[in-house]
């Protein structure tokens, strides 16, 4: 759960991590404790969230998915380079 109200969450992929079920919070001890308490209040839900998150991460980082992402990146670079005036 995101409870910071800030755009900078310490990593450039925090939104992707949050979408997989990760809990995003501030670095204050109070915020961390509150997040942990909320998670531990419902262990079955926490385990289900973890399992769903694991599946999303495995899909996101599957070799085929990564290859497609790199192919798109390289294609964008080539297209950008070839569209520059000579």
How would you describe this protein?
The protein is mostly helical. Mean pLDDT is 85; it is low at 1-5. The protein has one domain. The protein is 65% helix and 0% strand. It is elongated and about 60 Å long.
From the structure above, extract its key features.
86 residues; mainly alpha; elongated; disordered N terminus
How would a textbook summarize the main sheet?
Answer: none
Mean pLDDT: 85
| Secondary structure: number of strands | 0
| General form | elongated
N- to C-terminal separation?
49 Å
Low-confidence stretches: 1-5
- Structure annotation, total helices: 4
Radius of gyration: 18 Å
Total tally of structural domains: 1
Order of helices and strands: HHHH
Q: Supply the helix-strand structural class.
A: mainly alpha
**Helical proportion?**
55-70%
SSE topology:
Elements (H helix, E strand, L loop, with lengths): L13 H6 L9 H12 L2 H18 L2 H20 L4
Short characterization:
The protein is built from four helices and no strands. With 86 residues, the chain is mainly alpha-helical.
């Amino acid at each position: 759960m995101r409870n910071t109200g800030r755009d900078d969450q310490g990593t450039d992929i925090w939104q992707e991590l949050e979408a997989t079920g990760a809990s995003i919070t501030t670095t204050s001890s109070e915020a961390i404790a509150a997040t942990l308490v909320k998670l531990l209040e419902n262990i079955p839900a926490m385990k289900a969230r973890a399992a769903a998150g694991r599946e999303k991460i495995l899909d996101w980082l599957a070799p085929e998915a990564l290859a497609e992402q790199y192919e798109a990146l390289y294609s964008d670079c080539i297209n950008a380079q070839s569209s520059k005036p000579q």
